[in-house]
Amino acid sequence: MTSVDPSSFGAKTLAVDVCRRYPGSIKDRVILITGPTVTSIGYGTAEAVAQLDPKLLILAGRDMTKLEQARHKLQSKVKDAPVKLLKLCLTDSAQIKEAVEELRSWQTPIDVVINNAAVMDTPYELTPEGHELQFATNYLGPWLFTQSIIPLVLESKGKRVVMVSSVGHHNGDIRWDDPAYTKGYDRKHAYGQGKTADILYAKELAKRFRGQGLTAFSLDPGGISTPLQKHWSLEEKQEVGRKYGAFHQDGTVNHEADVWKTIDQGASTTCRAAFDPDIASESGSFLVDCQIRNDKRASYAGDDAAAERLWKWTNELMGESF
Known about the structure:
Elements: H1 15-21, E1 30-34, H2 41-50, E2 56-61, H3 64-77, E3 83-87, H4 93-106, E4 112-115, H5 133-154, E5 160-164, H6 187-209, E6 215-220, E7 223-224, H7 234-244, E8 260-261, H8 263-266, H9 268-275, E9 286-288, E10 291-292, H10 304-318
């Protein structure tokens, strides 16, 4: 098995090639991935990881039928891949805590947590707890889940947390005084604030747990045609098509456009963030196209004071004391 020099990794690198470069970070390790539906880069990540002999892959999501589909597809590609399923609804704090208790009952240290689950540009909706849906799914839920299982991560060898953010974080900073958009909703800004929070959270997590050996990274996976775009109107697709060639005028995907990555390519940056031991000294960084690119973060997403503020603010918002 020939491994690839990580300096040559880029936009078109495949996730499995990244994983093959770091077999020691995967073999006999426990990897947890949220949002691994078969059409997602979460699934692409899982399939790549499964080929490197992990001890256990934990696939976490709210829809058990979709999780079963992911497990079936995964085990059809990688025979006897060790997979367990975890019901996890990121918009329901009580259910998140149930999932955490379930995980604890397994008595298994978790080497790598990959927070991949996301929604994008959804119509305005508040969760039963009063949080805007995108912010709850993309940040608040993953925050509560991750904070709650940090002890399991610290018991492991890997000790790594990965937040899958997006170039969409450039759509907006955190609306500190009105994160639920009670004064008017902008769905693209709402997506942006959640993805900005993911970056800041990884940065602050890295700082606070550096002394305990935990590392954390955030990343932009690039443009991948998945059901995430299902809420885009024809006009929006036409506009993106004019700018980047990503869609035809009828709204169908132009798969020939260079802006798109395949799922296997889209999962590769996640895999480097999750498994490269040599980037540990740069914990808290942001990756794009498999390389550390802190210059690609919006200024507000790389701000130390904002990261510290977010930590305290989120605890208050969620009624927690992590």
